[in-house]
Each structure stands twice: as structure tokens, then as C-alpha cells.
Amino acid sequence: MTAAGAVLATPAGADERLPGAWRLGLSRGAMEVRLFFRMRDQVVFTFAFPIVFLFLFASIFHDRMAGTGATASQYYVASMTAAGIMSTSFQSLGVSIAVEREQKVLRRLRSTPMPPAAYFLGKIWLVLVTGLLETALLLAFGTVVYGVDLPSDVTGWLTFGWIFVLGITGCALLGIAISSVPRSARSATSVVVLPFLVLEFISGVYILVTTVPRWMLTVGSLFPLKWLCQGLRGVFLPSAAAAMEPAGSWEYGRIALVLGAWCVGGLVLCLLTFRWRGRDE
């Protein structure tokens, strides 16, 4: 068969197939990132809020913690970094998806040929970009102002990497799941922020883990934020600081187990509860 015959034998539209979910997810993610950075007030609030709180708490509670080799200021750098990761994933997705659902953005997207996975991939890319940027800003601020020591070996950065990935994945899936709870976009902020705020207090973000009542820590240990805080303290604080943890160690194995379980459990919750339409439709 000649080259011309081969061309003629090619089925019409073979080169016009729709791109796959991964390629569409990348395009959707780039669009989500552009839209995010166009809203300057949201950008300022997202990145400045944890830094302001870090400055306030680290300035008020700056004494050296006995027997740990670290100061309270350095403790808050690790804890606020964990809270920042959950803020850019759980809180951000929980509110934004609820708003998009009420504005019927989700219903319109569902009626297009775009695979549903592409929408969620776009949100994940947005969470990764904003989460990495916020983490970098907090660590840079903590290193310069409060003398936090960054890991000096590959093992330390690998530990940080898997804690970050598991933590932000579990929190993002939990944010997607809770986005179906608010009855309207107006109530989304209250429904999402309230449990997040409670978790921050009982997980050792705003209050030193040594002063949080044991029963509160027990409740907090059921959720990913407590383990995300503990893991990042293990990465950025001296090894002697593990003595202030309830178990007297960083418990990396348990951290991986709990965060991994939340990744699986969050995915199950998303599959069971996510809705493309509002309750009144």
C-alpha cells in the first residue's frame, strides 16, 4: 500500500480524539492556579494568615523548652507549617467546591465530555502548588527569624517529603468530602472552618502539646492534623524535643499509618458523599 493509500485508509477523526484525564487534569490545574493568583485578596490572606499567626504566637511564647534543645518559637514554626498545609488543602477545597456547586459550575462541568477525574486532578495540582509555596514561605520565615534548623541530610528531607505528601493528600480528600456537607455557599465557611479551628487547638498547633489535656490529644489523634504536626516537629526540631511528645518519640511508623489510613478513608468518603448538584436541584 502506498503512503497516499495509507493516509486515505486512516479512519476519519482518528487524530481528533479527546485528550485523556491526565492531560486535561494538567490543563485544569494550570487554569485553577491562574484563577487563584488573579484574586489578590485571597492570595494575600492565604499566605499571610499563617505567617502572621506564627509571628504572634512565636513572639508571645518564645522561652526555651527545658530539656528539648528548642525554643517555643521553633515549635510554632513546625506546628504552623502543618496548619498551613491543612489550610491550603482541607479548608480551601471544602469552601471552594461548595461555592462552585451552588454556582452550578460542577453541574456544567459534569455535562461536558471532560472526565470527572480531570476536575479533581486540577484541584490537586492547585493544592500542591499553594501548599508548597506556603510551606516554603513559613520555613524561610522560621529559619531567618527564629533559627529553625532545616534538615542537613537526604534522610531528613525524604522524611519531610513523605509526611508532606501523605498529609496534604489526606487533608485534600477530607476537604473534598466535607464540601458536600454545607447546604449553601454562605454556610460553607462556617461548616469547614469551625472543625479546622477546633483541630488546631487540640492537635498542638496553638497550644504546646505538653499542656493540651490528654483527652483532647486523644480526640485529636483521630485526625490527620495532630500527626502532621508531630511529624514536622520531628523533622525540624532537635531529637531531644521528642521527649515532650506523649509517647516520648516521634512515632514515624504510626504517623505513616494514620496519614495513610486517612488517604484511603478520605477517598472512600469522597466516593460515597460527593455530589455534582446542590441539594435543592
UniProtKB/TrEMBL annotation:
Keyword list, A-Z: Cell membrane, Membrane, Transmembrane, Transmembrane helix, Transport
Primary location recorded for the protein, binned into one broad class: membrane
Q: Which GO terms describe its molecular function?
A: ABC-type transporter activity
- Which InterPro entries does the record associate with it? ABC2_TM, ABC2_TM_bact-type, Nod_factor_ABC_transporter
Domain ABC transmembrane type-2: residue ranges: 41-277
Q: Which residues form a coiled coil?
A: none
UniProt keyword Transmembrane, yes or no: yes
Cell compartment(s), UniProt: Cell membrane; Membrane
Q: Which GO terms describe its cellular component?
A: plasma membrane
The text of the family note is: Belongs to the ABC-2 integral membrane protein family.
Entry protein name = Transport permease protein
